[in-house]
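Ops channel
N.P.: pipeline sanity check, posting one input/output pair.
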């Protein structure tokens, strides 16, 4: 059995709040601890590299999440909301618990892990406030007009795509998570509007799940099958079946009109590929090459 370090046993025995800053001196019983560092202490040059957001955006995020993240303990070493958000954003950006993620806030890894979990769970709880597929006539017209301006494809209500987010092999049914390229992943389905707004994000299914299967587990098909609701269609790749509400590219094109259709379809649908690229560029932990 692996023995925990003496300091870690002491923390467990005293049942210290896991929101507490945990450094070497404190674990040995000293009342002193290193000063917490948050985004407030970063220089302007560090923001793009460490957090990928401007200072005012991070401040707004802290205010939004404060009711859920504020520590219930009165200990002076309790992590602040600003520190927790800084830790999480730094992890999303770098994709690693090691190195900069712990250093940026001067805390041990177990406290880092808990902060990331708290912030992630809180963000997920609020996702419906920001990720939605509005089907009012005004919104449908706005999206259709925006997509049409890209390459002349009419009545487009969204571009559909997917990305695989790598993860360590789960203990339960690991093979269902194995992607065809050999690594374990989640098959994350996304749909976006013409200005890169994400309207659907579904991360519930393992890497071996087929894209078309995942689509039918969402509420999206129903949006386009209600009377007088969906008046257009989505653009998808060849992994989806052609239907009255999802348009895919044509195979074996032989005439100019078919070539033009495919060109317009590919150019318009490319908005979802750009959206995924922006997400992975900003948040390295989403990229399989960034999994550490």
């Amino acid at each position: 059995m692996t023995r925990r370090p003496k300091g870690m046993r002491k923390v467990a025995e005293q049942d210290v709040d896991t929101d507490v800053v945990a450094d070497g001196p404190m674990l040995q019983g000293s009342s002193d601890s290193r000063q917490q560092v948050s985004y407030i202490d970063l220089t302007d040059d560090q923001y793009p590299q460490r957090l990928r957001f401007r200072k005012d955006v991070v401040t707004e995020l802290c205010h939004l999440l404060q009711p859920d993240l504020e520590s219930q303990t009165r200990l002076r070493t309790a992590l602040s909301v600003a520190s927790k958000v800084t830790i999480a954003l730094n992890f999303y950006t770098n994709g690693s618990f090691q190195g900069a993620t712990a250093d940026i806030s001067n805390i041990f890894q177990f406290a880092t892990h808990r902060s990331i979990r708290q912030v992630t769970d809180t963000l997920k709880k609020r996702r419906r406030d920001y990720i939605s597929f509005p089907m009012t006539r005004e919104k449908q017209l706005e999206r259709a007009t925006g997509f049409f301006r890209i390459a002349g494809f009419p009545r487009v209500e969204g571009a559909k795509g997917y990305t695989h987010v790598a993860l360590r092999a789960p203990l339960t049914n690991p093979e269902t998570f194995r992607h065809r390229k050999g690594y374990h992943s989640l098959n994350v389905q996304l749909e976006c509007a013409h200005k890169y707004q994400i309207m659907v994000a579904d991360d519930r299914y393992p890497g071996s799940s087929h894209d078309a299967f995942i689509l039918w587990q969402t509420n999206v098909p129903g949006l386009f099958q209600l009377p007088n609701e969906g008046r257009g269609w989505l653009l998808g790749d060849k992994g989806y079946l052609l239907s009255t509400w999802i348009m895919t590219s044509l195979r074996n094109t032989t005439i100019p009109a078919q070539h033009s259709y495919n060109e317009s379809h590919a150019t318009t649908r490319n908005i979802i590929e750009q959206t995924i690229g922006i997400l992975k560029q900003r948040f390295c932990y989403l990229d399989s090459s960034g999994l550490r």
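N.P.: looks fine end to end. The longest helix spans residues 256-282.
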